[in-house]
Amino acid sequence: MGHTVQNKSKLIARVRRLRGQMEAIERALEAEVSCAEILNLAASVRGATNGLVVELLEDHLRNHVVDVEGDAQRKAGADELIEVMRRHLK
């Protein structure tokens, strides 16, 4: 997966932000803040996670379906993408 290596620093930065957001939820729970605040923090994590997934899906689509030569490679990339989306959307 060369494209994840090319975007490695950007992807790691996203994951680190997610970790920070999860730690914020943990601190909020420990501090017994209101449930509304915790729900807002959780919604932020969901949004950040979705953003990461969209970026990964876009990279996969470009690198394993659109920009490949040969129908066999294109089909394999599309099949992988379909399987990942099925798991993600459950």
Automatic annotation (TrEMBL):
| Any GO BP | negative regulation of DNA-templated transcription
State one Pfam family annotation: Trns_repr_metal
The family database entries (CDD domains) matched by this protein are listed as: RcnR-FrmR-like_DUF156
The entry lists its GO molecular-function terms as: DNA binding; metal ion binding
Q: Which InterPro entries match?
A: Metal_Tscrpt_repr (IPR003735), Metal_Tscrpt_repr_sf (IPR038390)
Q: Which domain of life is it from?
A: Bacteria
Give the similarity note: Belongs to the FrmR/RcnR family.
- What protein name is recorded for this chain? Transcriptional regulator
Look up and give the organism this protein is from: Marinibacterium profundimaris
